[in-house]
Design brief:
The protein is an alpha+beta fold. It has 3 helices and 6 strands; from the N terminus they run αααββββββ. Strand 5 and strand 6 form a beta hairpin.
Length: 147
C-alpha cells in the first residue's frame, strides 16, 4: 500500500512539471514579446545622441562657402609639423613635433580686446598655444609641465 502511495506522489510531481512546461509553451508568445520590447528599448536608447551630429548644418549645401577653410582647419594646418623646443632637467634642448592626434582642444578666447584661439597640445607633456584670430599664426607657446 505504501508503494502505491509513493508511486502516486511521483505521478503528481511529474504532472505538475508537465503543467509548468505546457504553461511556458502556451505563453511563449508573451515571453517573446517581452524579449522583443527589451531588445528594441535597449537599441533605441543606444541610438539617442546627447549632442547633435557635427554633420548637421542649418544651411543648405549650396549656401556653404567651401572655398574658405574653417578655423579648426587653419589651426591644424598651422600646428601639425610645428616643432616646439623645450629644455630637460639638465638644460638640454628637446624637440616635440606636433601631429594631428596631439591637438586635444581648441577654444576661442580674447586677449587685449582681440579674438585669439587657444589650442591645448600634447598628452603627458602639454602646451597651450595661442594663435591669432584666423588660426594661421602662433602668438605664444606656454609649457604646462615642469622639467
Amino acid at each position: 500500500m505504501t508503494i502505491l502511495v509513493h508511486y502516486m506522489d511521483i505521478t503528481i510531481k511529474d504532472q505538475s512539471r508537465r503543467g509548468l512546461a505546457r504553461g511556458i509553451i502556451r505563453h511563449s508568445s508573451i515571453y517573446f514579446l517581452i524579449f522583443l520590447i527589451i531588445v528594441f528599448t535597449t537599441f533605441a536608447i543606444g541610438c539617442i545622441e546627447d549632442e547633435p551630429s557635427q554633420n548637421v548644418s542649418d544651411t543648405p549645401p549650396g549656401d556653404q562657402n567651401s572655398s574658405e577653410p574653417s578655423i579648426d582647419e587653419n589651426i591644424e594646418k598651422t600646428l601639425v609639423g610645428h616643432q616646439i623646443v623645450y629644455y630637460d632637467i639638465a638644460g638640454e634642448p628637446r624637440y616635440y613635433n606636433i601631429s594631428k592626434k596631439d591637438i586635444r582642444n581648441i577654444e576661442k578666447s580674447e586677449s587685449n580686446g582681440e579674438v585669439i584661439w587657444i589650442a591645448t597640445v600634447g598628452y603627458g607633456m602639454q602646451w597651450e598655444i595661442h594663435l591669432n584670430s584666423t588660426g594661421e599664426s602662433i602668438l605664444e607657446e606656454i609649457q604646462l609641465f615642469r622639467t
